[in-house]
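Fill in residues.
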């Protein structure tokens, strides 16, 4: 004879239902909003926009705002370089746009990077060779102390400008992707003329600068 009238027949359903509700509750607690799409995605987009507002595009006198890069995408040859302001190892502010009209090499590096150490004397030789062309070399160290960078420059006898990218913000903005060294060549109009990933030798630097520095007027 059936015992449904006593309620025992409904007990298994109630138990199963209870486990389902408990499982859903635990899932929401563990995964939160990520179960239905990341709640942080809009915030990330806002953060990227704020970085671009703080670090506007390079503006030389002959560059119009219609040509400024947008969206914060990786720079390519022909793009206008993003402007930035960082401190050098002595605490002085260095802003890229202040060198408008001059050829600039931006080198992303770190003291622990062995290929960077090999490349640095090549950059120093180029700096000495092209001083008459007002060449500027900004070596953006990645997230190290001013003391460590200063000791490194003293050890290798480097005379160009060491700049501290303390948070790696400019490295991220330029799309370096942790590939060190990475070097951008920028002409006097703020245009990227070459991008090199990995160490360079003098002949490569000379070749890139040939496309960066305008020929002398006759």
């Amino acid at each position: 004879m059936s015992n449904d009238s006593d309620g025992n027949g409904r007990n298994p359903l109630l138990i199963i239902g209870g486990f389902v509700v408990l499982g859903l509750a635990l899932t929401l607690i563990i995964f939160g909003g990520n179960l239905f799409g990341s709640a942080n995605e809009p915030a990330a987009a806002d953060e990227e926009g704020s970085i671009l507002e703080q670090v506007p595009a390079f503006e030389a006198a002959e560059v119009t705002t219609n040509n400024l890069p947008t969206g914060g995408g990786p720079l390519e040859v022909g793009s206008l370089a993003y402007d930035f302001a960082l401190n050098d190892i002595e605490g002085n502010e260095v802003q890229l746009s202040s060198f408008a009209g001059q050829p600039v090499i931006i080198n992303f590096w770190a003291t622990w990077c062995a290929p960077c150490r090999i490349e640095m004397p090549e950059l120093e030789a180029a700096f000495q060779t092209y001083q008459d062309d007002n060449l500027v070399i900004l070596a953006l160290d990645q997230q190290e102390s001013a003391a460590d960078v200063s000791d490194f420059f003293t050890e290798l006898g480097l005379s160009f400008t060491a700049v501290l990218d303390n948070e790696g913000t400019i490295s991220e903005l330029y799309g370096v992707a942790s590939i060190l060294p990475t070097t951008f060549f920028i002409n006097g109009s703020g245009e990227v003329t070459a991008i090199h990933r990995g160490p360079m030798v003098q002949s490569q630097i000379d070749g890139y600068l040939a496309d960066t520095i305008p020929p002398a007027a006759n």
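DSSP finds six helices and seven strands in the chain.
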